[in-house]
Amino acid sequence: MKDKICVTVWNEYRHEKRNPKIAEIYPGGIHGAIAKYLSTLPGIEVRTATLDEPEHGLTDEVLKNTDVLIWWGHLHHGEVHDQVINKVHRRILDGMGLIALHSSLGSKIFRRLMGTSCGARWREMDERQRVWVVSPGHPIVEGLGAYFEIPHCEMYGEFFDIPQPDELVFISWYQGGEVFRSGCCFQRGRGKIFYFQPGHETLPIYHQKEVLLVIGNAARWAAPISGLDKVERVSHVPEPIERIIVEE
Amino acid sequence: MKDKICVTVWNEYRHEKRNPKIAEIYPGGIHGAIAKYLSTLPGIEVRTATLDEPEHGLTDEVLKNTDVLIWWGHLHHGEVHDQVINKVHRRILDGMGLIALHSSLGSKIFRRLMGTSCGARWREMDERQRVWVVSPGHPIVEGLGAYFEIPHCEMYGEFFDIPQPDELVFISWYQGGEVFRSGCCFQRGRGKIFYFQPGHETLPIYHQKEVLLVIGNAARWAAPISGLDKVERVSHVPEPIERIIVEE
Amino acid sequence: MKDKICVTVWNEYRHEKRNPKIAEIYPGGIHGAIAKYLSTLPGIEVRTATLDEPEHGLTDEVLKNTDVLIWWGHLHHGEVHDQVINKVHRRILDGMGLIALHSSLGSKIFRRLMGTSCGARWREMDERQRVWVVSPGHPIVEGLGAYFEIPHCEMYGEFFDIPQPDELVFISWYQGGEVFRSGCCFQRGRGKIFYFQPGHETLPIYHQKEVLLVIGNAARWAAPISGLDKVERVSHVPEPIERIIVEE
Amino acid sequence: MKDKICVTVWNEYRHEKRNPKIAEIYPGGIHGAIAKYLSTLPGIEVRTATLDEPEHGLTDEVLKNTDVLIWWGHLHHGEVHDQVINKVHRRILDGMGLIALHSSLGSKIFRRLMGTSCGARWREMDERQRVWVVSPGHPIVEGLGAYFEIPHCEMYGEFFDIPQPDELVFISWYQGGEVFRSGCCFQRGRGKIFYFQPGHETLPIYHQKEVLLVIGNAARWAAPISGLDKVERVSHVPEPIERIIVEE
Fold first, then answer.
1. Is cis: bond before D159, omega within 30 of 0?
2. D44-47 long-range CB contacts below 8 Å, 24 or more apart?
3. What kind and span of H or E run contains D126?
4. Which end of chain C is more exposed for a tag (fewer CB within 10 A), N or C?
5. Which residues, in sequence order, are CB contacts of D18 under 8 Å at separation 6+?
């Protein structure tokens, strides 16, 4: 594992600028709240990038120096340019980790990686959510107990149209009667992907310590290994065989 | 399960028309050889569709009446229109099965569903391939022994850039020294997908009985169940909760 | 697939004989209620077996003629003889299906197959349970909607100490705040195993139509394929190699 | 993750003492060769334990202080006492990692954890083995290329009767025509398990640098996280519900 993990936190960063209630909860943006926490962790180096920057802040230089990309998309998925998505996608297959937060289930990059609609039920009633650990030995749950609670949440419910996760880490219970696979690990190419449901722009969920703990753990888990740089497509022949003539 | 499974076998159907050697092996096209076999099986109804037909032969009417789509794509993946792919993709998520054969790992529809590059090593030396069963209780291997051999093949080798299959059914051994995950089951949305490596346009692999047996088994396995027609996105609230006012 | 599936429903069949309240709900035993339903399904032939019969009703003859074994164990797991468990275990690895119901998570056979403690939280408060479908294309959910409800249940909650299921089909929501992986598919050897949480001896859950529907679907899904009879342990050498002398 | 990982390398340590050819290759025992390598790695502390020590060297004190147990069993699986296996099993479910090497697929502890026969084909002809990476982003392959070769090996071939691995990392090719899932990750309880096929007592495989690299990587991967100490079996009720009276 690398000594230092370079994390880029990406955010649309629109509603924080337009809606005073959201700005009050996340004065530096959702990306700012997450970056601030991550910068307190040893071995992690953080930067941020946002939709309205040139190339959405995801230049070749930034991507090349990003080990783990954290993504918050919500209302403006369609505005992210396909050429940026193509590069991010390629970089993930080459090893960069991705942490997709909450409404980012609808983002271009997450849907591209999953191959499915990624649709789910949803409801805003500020109800209670209880996030249960179903993989207690997993690095992403280090430091948690059997479950943690989010006092007020936005509900996402099953059926969640994703491929079966390679590792299912969290299942949420909602006061209104639904369940949700809320912590899902996927491997795609050489990259590790973690989808994490908790979060909402009008609720202080990204200030809650368990939620931040999970995001930090996930950043370490998703960091790439060193190794193969590219998959070779045409190979030498490892074993000595002669070309066999097939009689027509 | 449905009483009758409607299978559509799709083929580019180009090289059979241009190359006399290929035409000799597959006079009715690769799709024809597969369709001919399937039509001998009870409970299966077969039709075919090809690239050069209007809408590539995959009209709304055809898709609506297809339970399982078998796909042979090779040199003309890029010519398949995105609007057709979009419909096929949607229909698979809604329950239609897909069997992707050999070079169809590079097809738009398979790559869309996988979310990865689907790249692999490859080599044409007409070498020997031995296909080992690694899931001996799976419906797709019904009727097979511990392995079967393909006397002359085109080699595809690891690393195969796909998501880890939900069920891995076959692993191939090649004379030249490679291995390949050659029978891979995936569930995406409500649809079942089977990737099957054996096949080549200049070799009579789709006349070999074990290969046809597997394709027939896979067609039965991939057939949709009846049930949910659409995933509901916004739900009623199953449990009586009141909206909670969060004080800012 | 076989034309006729032979199902044996096994039950401790003790509390139904001792407790009048249980006898009132299940006058013919829990096994009787399930067998009665299954016998109405085409292509399924049912018999029953119970703890207090010789060899617990699971003689070599019965096992040999059983395609799918349904198991209800509760308070007397320890009384099932190891030699019977050994035979059942061997038969499952050779292809017999197993459906383990509710408290059978603690049975010798289920724990033997899982390799883990199979422990879980539990509570009896006759609360409401809502069983959500998380694999809507799976044969086991055929005929169900997005979820079904059990008005009064015994709660089992996470962490459920099982290996990650090969396919996760149901997740339950409980009124008291827990979640549970309630429908879990496993492949072990050539055998298919389905764990299904719903059920309780003092509640009429095995008279509920959705629960019975699932058990019937699972019986069909778990039925063995024909094929390999035994795994060969020592093989001939498929490829011509000569023994290489390694110089010490 | 813990700062220091305590690894115990366990070996039958019988054939090295009886067979001069084996002693020449592994003068300090197979455990000695592996322990020597691991002791060169930062952050790993190694001890060894063998069959003929009291309690097979696996006392409560040793187990309590072991993060990862590496196991070499071969001809004397049956001599390992069940009470020791029970403790090792419990400790793995509580979080200790296990690396099972080569013939340890037949060991009591591995079979207990898998729940299957763990049988496979095998052959001794000192043939060539090529170990292909099929999960190139996995921490266990860090430092490897697309494959590595073992010049002379003992062959183990499919069908390998294990549960489908949670993550499949290596597939081997053999000169004699077989394939084998040679690097398999499993999660059981809170413990991580890695089965690694390469090895043989009469061949210097545990002196080969790629093999040792993998064992070292696996030790780091399998180390437990801190966290939940025991799974609670009976819970308080997280949500306020009243006991519902069901009218009989």
1. yes
2. D44/D4, D44/D5, D44/D7, D44/D216, D44/D219, D44/D220, D45/D4, D45/D5, D45/D6, D45/D7, D46/D6, D46/D7, D46/D8, D46/D9, D47/D6, D47/D7, D47/D8, D47/D9
3. strand D121-133
4. C
5. none
- pLDDT tens string for chain D (248 positions)? 567 999 999 999 999 999 999 999 999 999 999 999 999 999 999 999 999 999 999 999 999 999 999 999 999 999 999 999 999 999 999 999 999 999 999 999 999 999 999 999 999 999 999 999 999 999 999 999 999 999 999 999 999 999 999 999 999 999 999 999 999 999 999 999 999 999 999 999 999 999 999 999 999 999 999 865 544 544 577 887 765 555 54
Sequence letter at residue A142: E
Q: Chain A residues within 8 A (CB-CB) of chain C?
A: 130, 132-136, 146-147, 157-160, 164, 167-168, 171-174, 177-179, 181
Spatial separation of the C-alpha atoms in residues B235 and A177, rounded to whole Å: 11
Q: Using CB atoms, pick whichever of C160, C173, C174 lies closest to residue A178.
A: C173
**Average pLDDT of the residues of chain B:** 93
Token pair listed for D161: 């009767």
Cα torsion A234, A238, A242, A247 to 10°: value is: -50
- Residue pair A68/A93 in contact (Cβ under 8 Å)? The answer is no
**Residue range A230-236: mean pLDDT, rounded:** 53
**How close does chain C come to D158, measured CA to CA in Å?**
9
The token duo for D141 is 């392959």
| DSSP 8-class letter at C243 | P
Q: Closest by alpha carbon to D184, among D156, D163, D158?
A: D163
Q: Tell me the sheet residues that pair with D27.
A: none
- Give the SS3 label for residue D226: coil
CB contacts < 8 A, B to D, total 57
| Residue D159 with chain B: CB contacts under 8 Å | 132-134, 136, 146
Chain C closest CA to A93's CA: distance in Å?
A: 25
How confident is the model over B57-90, as pLDDT tens digits?
999 999 999 999 999 999 999 999 999 999 999 9
Residue C97 CB: number of other CB atoms within 10 A?
Answer: 25
- Which chains does C contact via 3+ CB–CB distances below 8 A? A, B, D
In angstroms, rounded to a whole number, what is the distance separating the alpha carbons of residues B139 and B47?
Answer: 23
Asked if A130's CB is within 8 angstroms of C164's CB, the reply is: no
Q: What is the chain C residue with the closest CA to D126?
A: C244
Altogether, the residues listed in chain A come to a count of 248
Half-sphere exposure of A71 (CA within 13 A, CB side): 31
Cβ-Cβ contacts under 8 Å for C247 (sequence gap 6 or more): none
Angstrom distance (rounded) from CA C180 to CA A134: 9
Q: What is the pLDDT of residues A60-96, one digit of tens each?
A: 999 999 999 999 999 999 999 999 999 999 999 999 9
Q: Contact, C184 vs C194, CB < 8 A?
A: yes
**How many residues belong to chain B?**
248
Secondary structure class of C11 (helix, strand, coil):
strand
Contact A225 D139 (CB under 8 A): yes
Expressed in angstroms, the distance from the first to the final Cα of chain C is: 53
Nearest Cα residue to D101 out of D224, D203, D211, D14: D211
A111 in helix, strand or coil?
A: helix
Q: Where are the beta strands (DSSP E) in B39-178?
A: 44-50, 68-72, 97-101, 121-133, 147-157, 167-174
Classify residue A197 as left (phi > 0), alpha (psi -120 to 50) or beta: alpha
Does this model's pTM top 0.90? My answer is: yes
- What value does the mean pLDDT take over residues C145-161? 96
Nearest to C152 among D21, D187, D246 (CB): D246
